[in-house]
Specification:
The complex is a heterodimer of chains A (269) and B (197). With 269 residues, chain A is an alpha+beta fold. Chain A contains 11 helices and 10 strands. Chain A has 3 domains: 41 residues; 66 residues, Roll (Nuclear Transport Factor 2, Chain: A); 101 residues, Nuclear Transport Factor 2, Chain: A (Roll). Chain A is extended, with a radius of gyration of 25 Å. Chain B is mostly helical. Chain B has 2 domains: 118 residues, RNA polymerase sigma factor, region 2, helix turn helix motif (Rna Polymerase Sigma Factor, Chain: A); 62 residues, Winged helix-like DNA-binding domain superfamily/Winged helix DNA-binding domain (Arc Repressor Mutant, subunit A). Chain B contains 9 helices and no strands. In chain B, α2 crosses α4 and α4 crosses α8. The longest helix of chain B is centred in the first third of the chain and has 23 residues. The chains are: A alpha+beta (269), B mainly alpha (197). At the A-B interface, α1, α2, α3, α8 and β3 of A face α2, α3, α4, α5 and α6 of B.
Chain lengths: 269, 197
């Protein structure tokens, strides 16, 4: 085909011009009348170190304060350090997104069944997070979270694979391997007890979604998570059953336990 | 509000000023955002549809585009560029992100909480839209070929030939220089011609 003919074809193709009025009015309702709008109205602006710094810079630049800037510098530095500490102590966007998803009644309802909602993957971009989660067995949900207003704005459910529980001998072996690790041993020596043992996906990052079904998510009989509790804190050990070793250990704060930490490491938080 | 079915670049200075004031109001008022939504919903949905050739996916992308726009509107800074350019850019990024995430495969979205109301409420409409879309055979054939190109060529071809955007509008949407866009268009059409062989 000649280039001119192709351009003519592109220019003259009969294009669809469609409308789904039901979606339009439904989305409008969500945007302007729903909890989303209320959450936004309640204040969705995010405090960042940059904003804090700019605010103080403007304050210092104000003519009335210029003369006092030098003497106020010490106060500024102390306040900046405190603010930075406060910011660093605040949960990361990934943790916020995971928390929003876990607490969302719509997500809980759609993930039929009981058991803890497991966060498997979190990608953050432009104030939005894509969170993949599910229970130990059953369907998976991919949720889009607006981090600023801490709201799930959309979600898609995919037919999940049923993940078999570990066999008793696998459970016992996983615990034995975890207990042999020095860090886990020290926790258990101080009175820590094994809380739960989970099988895990072999590679969530290779997951692909086609036609509403999750493919390539295979239960990894070769890997398990051993959860040990002590004084209200939970230690998680990623155990490689084939290699007979602990791959990674995380020590999340109590009530703030996210399983994806152990899949991808804290650098992704 | 002026009629926006005309090309953005044809907005008169008065129309642009009116839009600027509406955007300013929308930064504090959901109702004002609702006016922008009414003006641009159909155009963004049809842009997503022409990029994806998939009604359900286009609806999802439209939802996320407006939800993102709504949540970010307070940070939006007016630069004498029509508001539509920003919406197109968000939608475009959403389409690209979607395909990038899924390795270029199409995804059938099962449901969307963005809709809140059950999609069942308008499932008939979706089915009708899909039927209507399937009648545009030439477009679907073209789309299939275009979707095999890298995203940046898909974007410029869709904006130029499907959205009938002028180069200077594409500059505002894509944030690239005029020369770059012309060059991308030239190479995109050339690559598409090779695909059509």
């Amino acid at each position: 085909m000649k280039k001119e003919a192709l351009i003519r074809m592109l220019e003259s193709t009969d294009l669809p011009d469609l409308m789904v009025a039901g979606h339009k009015s439904s989305l409008r309702k969500v945007l302007l009348q729903g909890a989303y709008a209320q959450a936004l109205a309640a204040g969705g602006s995010r405090v960042s170190p940059g904003n804090i710094f700019k605010g103080w810079l403007n304050w210092l630049r104000a003519p009335a304060w210029r003369m006092a800037a030098a003497s106020g510098l010490a106060v500024f530095v102390v306040a900046a350090v405190l603010s930075l500490a406060f910011y660093l102590a605040a949960p990361s966007p990934s943790v916020v997104a995971a928390d929003v998803v876990k607490r969302d009644p719509g997500i809980q309802q759609r993930l039929n069944g009981t058991g803890e909602i497991i966060i498997m993957r979190v990608d953050v971009r432009d104030g939005m997070a894509s969170v993949i989660c599910g229970r130990c067995m059953g369907d998976l949900i991919e949720a889009d979270v607006d981090i600023n207003v801490k709201t799930v704005v959309s979600a898609r459910r995919y037919e999940g694979l049923f993940i078999p529980e570990l066999a008793q001998d696998e459970r016992e072996r996983a615990i034995k391997i975890a207990a042999a690790d020095e860090r886990m041993k020290s926790v258990m020596d101080r009175g820590g007890s094994v809380d739960r043992v989970f099988p895990i996906f072999s590679s969530v990052s290779n997951m692909s979604v086609i036609g509403g079904s999750i493919l390539k998510v295979a239960p990894a009989a070769a890997q398990a998570i051993v959860s040990v509790q002590l004084d209200g804190k939970t230690w998680l050990a990623l155990v490689d059953l084939d290699q007979g070793r602990v791959e990674r250990i995380t020590e999340p704060e109590a009530g703030n336990m996210y399983y994806y930490e152990i899949f991808f490491g804290p650098q992704n938080l | 509000m002026p009629d926006r079915m005309t090309s953005e670049s044809s907005l008169s200075p008065d129309q642009l000023q009116a839009e600027k004031e509406l955007v300013k109001r929308a930064q504090h008022s959901p109702e004002a955002f609702g006016e922008l939504y009414e003006v641009y919903y159909r155009r963004i949905f049809n842009y997503a549809l022409k990029r994806t050739a998939n009604v359900q996916l286009a609806l999802d992308i439209t939802s996320v585009t407006f939800l993102k726009a709504f949540s970010q509107i307070k940070k939006y800074r007016w630069r004498d560029v029509p508001f539509a350019a920003w919406l197109y850019r968000i939608a475009s990024n959403e389409v690209n992100d979607h395909y990038r995430r899924e390795g270029g495969r199409r995804v059938s979205s099962i449901e969307s909480i963005a809709d809140l109301a059950d999609t069942g409420e308008y499932i008939d409409e979706i089915n009708e839209a899909e039927e209507e879309l399937s009648r545009h055979e030439e477009f679907i054939t073209l789309h299939r070929k275009i979707s095999e190109l890298p995203f940046i060529y898909q974007e410029v071809i869709a904006l130029k030939f499907f959205e009938k955007k002028k180069i200077r509008e594409m500059v505002k949407i894509l944030g690239k220089k005029e020369g770059t866009i012309k060059s991308l268009l030239h190479r995109g059409v050339e690559k598409l011609r090779e695909q059509m062989k």
